Amino acid sequence: MAKIGFIGLGQMGSGMCRNLIKGGHQLKVYDCAEAAVQNMVDAGAEAATSARAAAEGAEVVFTMLPIGDIVYQTVFGPDGIAEGISNDAIYVDMSTILPEETRNIGRKLAEQGVAMVDAPVGRTSAHAVAGTSTFMVGGDKEHVQRVMPYLECMGECITHCGPLGTGATVKLVNNYISAVCNLVTAEGMALGLAAGADQDTMVEVISQTPAGLGHIKTTWPAKALADDPSPAFMLDLARKDLGLALTAAADAKVPLATGSVTREIYNIASAAGHGREDWTTGIYRTVKHLANAT
Ligand code: NAD
């Protein structure tokens, strides 16, 4: 059983605290909303009157707060975590904030000898309540290992992504892909509906293809991830199909904003000589080249 400080008892934090209490840990909690603190006291936590008080005497201190500025203020502001946390304790931020905001907080805490881990969370508040959140974790291996038992109380699929801030980076990448897939799915479905296709039928078909299953586990492993240009499906043919969808959408007066931008990138890829390559490898090579990424 560990003494844990926990700050930020909203949609996510309240469920997570309950799971830590269920795991046998002793929680001292703080939130600027008194009702949120009272809820956790009713669940078995001790109330703290500030972030500093929640951090005092704790072996590990968690924050689950809305944005980076609030996290920074909660750590370094008056009566903040930095004033109360012991040098033996580890600070874990689980909020979704920028990697650079995370690294900045970590650097400042390191100056006073305190270690930090970032562990942003995947899935929703329903999973936080059920204890099935996912975690993308950044920090030194030794620090990550120390906080692992607590993360395991709150979730599953816990991935150590690399040094401090890489949890935030992977979370941001994941959410970016997810948000854009959400929009492009809506665009495609709207095109189908406007052109007279049935929604359930489209779902039945798309559920069996990379469009519905996602590329990372279907088309990418053998081609883009292996940097193999030999085509399972040629980029120029995908470019042609994209053009067909955009023509059909123009006829049906359906906006395909994502598709329009996508076609320009396919054009760039083709013009750069990737047209006869596999569509996934050609696109990945093109975007990595534009991004100067390896
Ligand atoms: P929330 O708004 O429900 O909870 C935030 C809590 O922080 C509130 O209880 C609020 O009173 C408290 N708070 C705000 N400012 C404070 C301060 N200065 N001092 C003390 N307490 C303060 O938000 P949430 O949904 O729990 O999300 C928290 C973080 O988790 C966000 O970064 C969010 O992007 C991320 N996240 C949310 C979900 C989700 O499904 N809700 C999923 C994954 C990640």
Bound molecules: nicotinamide-adenine-dinucleotide
Question: Can you tell me the residue ranges where pLDDT is under 50 for at least 5 consecutive residues?
Answer: none
Query: What is the tally of beta strands?
Result: 9
Based on the coordinates given, report the CATH architecture of the largest domain. Answer: 3-Layer(aba) Sandwich
Strand fraction band? Answer: 5-15%
Order of helices and strands: EHEHEHEHHEHEEHEHEHHHHHH
Q: Tell me the count of domains.
A: 2
Straight-line N-to-C gap: 44 Å
CATH class of the largest domain: Alpha Beta
Q: What would CATH call the homologous superfamily of the largest domain?
A: NAD(P)-binding Rossmann-like Domain
Structural class: alpha/beta
Please bin the fraction of helical residues.
Answer: 40-55%
Please give the largest β-sheet: 6 strands, parallel
Active site: 171
Domain 3-hydroxyisobutyrate dehydrogenase-like NAD-binding: 165-280
Protein name: 4-hydroxybutyrate dehydrogenase / sulfolactaldehyde 3-reductase
InterPro entries: 6-PGluconate_DH-like_C_sf (IPR008927), 6PGD_dom2 (IPR013328), 6PGDH_NADP-bd (IPR006115), HIBADH-like_NADP-bd (IPR029154), HIBADH-related (IPR015815), NAD(P)-bd_dom_sf (IPR036291)
Description:
- The chain has 294 residues and is α/β, with parallel strands linked by helices.
- It has two domains: 3-164, NAD(P)-binding Rossmann-like Domain (Rossmann fold); 171-291, N-(1-d-carboxylethyl)-l-norvaline Dehydrogenase, domain 2 (Orthogonal Bundle).
- It contains 14 helices and nine strands.
- It has helices at residues 11-22, 34-42, 51-55, 68-76, 81-84, 99-111, 125-130, 141-154, 166-194, 199-206, 210-213, 235-251, 257-274, 279-291, and strands spanning 3-7, 26-30, 46-47, 60-63, 90-93, 115-118, 121-122, 133-138, 155-162.
- It has a six-stranded parallel beta sheet with strand order 3-2-1-4-5-6, with helices on both faces. A three-stranded mixed beta sheet has the order 7-8-9.
- Helix 1 links the parallel strand 1 and strand 2.
- Helix 12 (235-251) packs across helix 14 (279-291).
- The radius of gyration is 23 Å and the shape is elongated.
- It starts with a strand and ends with a helix.
- The relative contact order is 0.08.
- The mean pLDDT is 97.
- Bound molecules: nicotinamide-adenine-dinucleotide (NAD).
